[in-house]
């Protein structure tokens, strides 16, 4: 196996600049450049499942569009499976699968199975392989009863499972998922996540996952990349993200009765009071035990729980620290 084989996705100093013309008055237009992706470099190995996150407008979709060949980078080098996506978009299409949570690649008026038949022909999937893949995906994604239903009649969760199957019929080596659980209920979310985990473990499919649902990342990805204003802010293990943001944990305590905010030992502090319940923030790296012991000794404690910092709060803190650095 060569180096290129292992690093399945490779970006070196990739940039994308859009020319935007804005109407500023009668017959007057202002030209402006938007640097959507600003000198991004990363490598994704075969079989990795990586989260690609950041706030709205950070540059995530632009990156995915360059990886599929829809957009051409303004500068830098980009390869997927050794292929330059914008030069050989059709050849690459046979090796990648894409799922956009907010829009479907299925034919709206046709029964689900007809969309699959069309993809069979479009991707020129050999008959035996098509049948084998379809059977497997129908079973794993629980689609048997839905195959003859027109796509417009499917629920969002059913349609999403249908879309994931469509993206995988041609056995792609890499799957780009853009918000795959958006708008799904808890049961559908966990079905989709479970399927992705199994697919990655059994077939070694490389996955790049863009999402605003941080549970997707927590449950699926060991590695996460954070992008903001087109720049890479963090690339590493999920656990390290908490440290990078120096997140806080929260101790939620229930007292026998309503109390004024308790006098917590610093650096812990009360951040919220609601009836007999109080929320105390304390540094994530510290043990909760001394704090709990102290409160239990001094106050009429009934119950307590510790909440881990959520990644969104950690990322927000990272931004704050960068902005003030
Ligand atoms: N075709 C385009 N022409 C001009 N500007 C664009 C174009 N596409 C994206 N942009 C701009 O580039 C920046 C990055 O957009 P992008 O869609 O990649 O962000 P994103 O991280 O995917 O955001 P979201 O989470 O909202 O989908 C934004 O400022 C956006 O307005």
Automatic annotation (TrEMBL):
Pfam families (alphabetical): ABC_tran
Keyword annotations: Antibiotic resistance, ATP-binding, Nucleotide-binding, Transport
GO molecular function, one term: ATP binding
Stored SUPFAM superfamilies: P-loop containing nucleoside triphosphate hydrolases
Gene3D superfamilies: P-loop containing nucleotide triphosphate hydrolases
Protein location: Cell membrane
Domain (ABC transporter): residue spans on this chain: 9-254
Membrane topology: Peripheral membrane protein
SMART domains the UniProt entry points to: AAA
Entry protein name: ATP-binding cassette domain-containing protein
Protein species of origin: Streptomyces koelreuteriae
